[in-house]
Design goal:
There is one protein chain. By secondary structure, the protein is α/β, with parallel strands linked by helices. It folds into 5 domains: about 60 residues, no CATH class; about 100 residues, no CATH class; about 140 residues, 2-Layer Sandwich (Nucleotidyltransferase, domain 5); about 220 residues, no CATH class; about 80 residues, no CATH class. It contains 27 helices and 11 strands. The chain has a 5-stranded mixed sheet with strand order 5-4-3-6-7. α8 packs antiparallel against α14, α14 packs antiparallel against α15 and α14 packs antiparallel against α16. The longest helix is centred in the middle third of the chain and has 25 residues. The two termini are about 60 Å apart.
């Protein structure tokens, strides 16, 4: 009986053979069978070791192998550069110009101080779900509260558990202590503020004294939208939106309107009619104001256009602009929306005094109520029943009242005036109710922040900070120390008495004769309260920058590159420099054009650092060209022109290990 024939299979040991490993590869057929293939000749070989070795000696193979030989390729003529040349400096500046900004040692600036985070989620052009994180902290060197970009982290799951997991990992990567987080600012999404399984509730398990601030800018926008829908006629929304649509898609219509406007207004050009959209906070204010200022010109334009274009939309818009009731509503809305927008801008600002922001919001609510309630009434603006104190004929503004008086002279019926006034009163009442409902849950904390204003702190007789410290769950021994220092604060003559943040930074740096700070506990507490967020404007700006950086032409950009560019932008802004005026350090520019640029991973000896926190490398930490993520191993990235243009060869990554002080082989 003949012996059974066994089919030879591909053996991976062949790939380790010194005579074969340079050119032999494994190829899988569609049937799943692996066969040997020559890398040089691009041909499939027989499944016999002897045939494979014979192929390696053939003339065809030797000829193809000669063309691929590294001996024919001369080494790159890298020369060490000892001094910085203007070309290298210019090349480094071009890299900064491409990215526009740089990232500096953020973790070093934060130190062990308290910080707050702004959180929001969004999707980029490639449908990648991101968690945008901005951080607020006190920079002791610059003596100011800084709000800046921290990270753009990819979300695997867009639920509360996924957000919390991603957030904790990001904080760990940056070496930030979760327990030092004072507050978080979010929008009003249920995944963030849900009372059972929201992000805030999950974080409170680790940080019990965490303060949640719902974005006031979001609340103002939602309140105005809800009041408009509930109280005002729907044709106003049609009037505002269709006026924008009429001009937005036609340059000829814009030119025709501009010519007519010039004739009426002595060659002055009109301001652009803007869109009232939900994604841009209180854009309705600017839209209503532009339409109000150009009411006569728009009415005349649509009067002419309805005859020339025979357009039904123009006919409808002309009839609306001819209705004096619509103009009355517009005149009523302009001053109210202007006040709301002013408060919104204050909360969006990075330079506003945090101790006075809530006062601005309360002042807005009081000014709204004063229009509709009886002057003698004493009602709690945050909790009182407004309907019980409504004035029978409130004064709704000079322009509105003058317009109503002119309409009376033209025969406007009293019952129609009553309808218009009732709608306006209903709008104000609804707006106030929405604002009260959407105020931050921790409004008590924000109210008590005013105690830390420089005006109040320097009073001899002042309110105690104990209720605020109890709200933030400070330990009893710390409350006693802060309270004692609070009452002794007026015993020293201070110089920074106009700005709250500068004042508390001065208190934080004060030294007595023994070179100790007798107000250390008080200053640390005050600065930790001042970093509590008040709006989500910064994280919304991050997503606006994301859409600029990662656009249709660069939709394949990865998360690492996107974070590097956004970090570079934020870093130079914190440093207060522009790309064209930034000075490239000699240590960095010397490496441009050398073989070090092509090094993928290099271990560098660290100088010992006895201070807590991450060690600092012997170069580049203050250069501003390094993007770093403090973890167990610190990652520094130097972004050059080639990397920004997508060439991975131009990326220099230096890995620093905190506890090791010698170079690995």
């Amino acid at each position: 009986m003949p012996k059974p024939q066994y089919a030879q299979k591909f053996r991976r040991e062949w790939l380790q053979d010194p005579a074969l490993k340079d050119w032999l590869t494994e190829k899988k057929k569609s049937s799943g069978i692996s066969v040997p293939q020559c890398r040089y000749c691009q041909c499939v070989l027989n499944l016999k070791l002897s045939d494979i070795k014979e192929h390696g000696k053939s003339k065809k193979h030797l000829k193809n192998a000669e063309a691929m030989s590294t001996a024919r390729q001369p080494p790159l003529p890298f020369q060490p550069v000892k001094t910085s040349s203007q070309t290298q400096i210019t090349e480094g500046q071009i890299a900064l110009f491409v990215a526009e900004h740089t990232s500096v040692a953020l973790r070093k600036d934060i130190g062990n101080n308290h910080y707050s985070l702004l959180l929001d989620e969004s999707t980029d052009i490639s449908d990648t779900k991101y968690l945008g994180i901005a951080i607020i902290y006190n920079d002791e060197q610059k003596e100011k509260i800084v709000s800046t970009f921290l990270s753009l982290s990819e979300l695997q799951e867009a639920n509360a558990e996924g957000i919390v997991t991603t957030l904790k990992k990001t904080l760990d990567d940056f070496g930030l202590d979760l327990k030092r987080m004072r507050g978080i600012g979010t929008d009003n999404a249920s995944v963030m503020v849900g009372i059972n399984n929201g992000v805030y509730e999950k974080l409170r398990k680790d940080v019990p004294d965490l303060v949640l601030i719902r974005c006031v800018c979001h609340s103002l926008q939602l309140s105005v939208s809800a009041a408009t829908v509930d109280a005002l006629p729907r044709n106003l929304d049609f009037l505002i939106s269709e006026t924008y649509n009429w001009f937005s898609r036609s340059s000829s219509r814009q030119a025709t309107y501009r010519k007519m406007y010039n004739i009426i207004n002595d060659n002055h050009d009109p301001l652009k009619i803007v869109q009232a959209c939900q994604t841009r906070w209180l854009s309705i204010s600017t839209a209503v104001e532009r339409i109000h200022d150009q009411w006569l010109e728009l009415k005349t334009h649509f009067d002419v256009t309805r005859h020339s274009e025979k357009c039904y939309t123009a006919e409808m818009l002309y009839s609306m602009y001819s209705d004096q009731q619509n103009l009355a509503y517009i005149k009523f809305l302009v001053p109210i929306l202007k006040d709301v927008r002013r408060v919104n801008k204050a909360f969006e600002s990075n330079d506003a005094d945090p101790t006075k922001l809530l006062d601005d919001l309360v002042l807005l609510i009081k000014s709204l109520l004063r229009k509709v309630i009886l002057p003698t009434s004493k009602v709690d603006i945050l909790e009182g029943n407004i309907e019980s104190f409504i004035s029978p004929k409130p004064y709704l503004g000079y322009d509105f009242e003058q317009h109503m008086e002119n309409m009376h002279k033209e025969g406007f019926a009293p019952n129609q005036e009553l309808t218009v006034r009732d709608r306006c009163i209903k709008f104000i009442v609804k707006l106030v109710k929405e604002l009260r409902q959407r105020l931050p849950n921790n409004v008590e904390v924000l109210q008590k922040m005013s105690l830390l204003s420089v005006e109040n702190a320097l009073r001899v007789v002042k309110n105690s900070l104990i209720p605020l410290m109890e709200l933030l769950q400070l330990p009893p021994q710390e409350i006693g120390a802060v309270d004692s220092q609070w009452h002794n604060l007026t015993l020293v003559k201070w110089t920074e008495v106009k700005d709250t943040v500068l004042f508390w930074n001065e208190v934080n740096k004060y030294k007595d004769a023994s070179h100790t700070n007798p107000f250390n506990d008080l200053a640390k507490f005050a600065l930790s309260v001042l970093v509590i967020p008040h709006s989500n404007a910064k994280v919304e700006r991050i997503f606006s920058q994301l859409n600029i950086v990662k656009n249709k032409l660069r939709n394949r950009m990865g998360t690492t590159m996107t974070n590097a560019i956004l970090g570079i932008r934020a870093g130079l802004k914190r440093a207060g420099k522009s790309c064209f005026e930034y000075e490239i350090p000699a240590e960095v520019s010397n490496m441009i054009g050398t073989s070090e640029v092509y090094t993928r991973s290099t271990e560098i000896v660290l100088k010992s650092d006895s201070s807590p926190g991450p060690s600092t490398p012997s170069f580049g930490a203050d250069a501003g060209l390094c993007r770093w993520r403090p973890t167990g191993v610190f990652l520094y990235q130097y972004v050059t022109v080639g990397e920004l243009m997508g060439d991975a060869r131009w990326k220099m990554i230096y890995s620093f290990e905190q506890t090791k002080h010698q170079t690995k082989s």
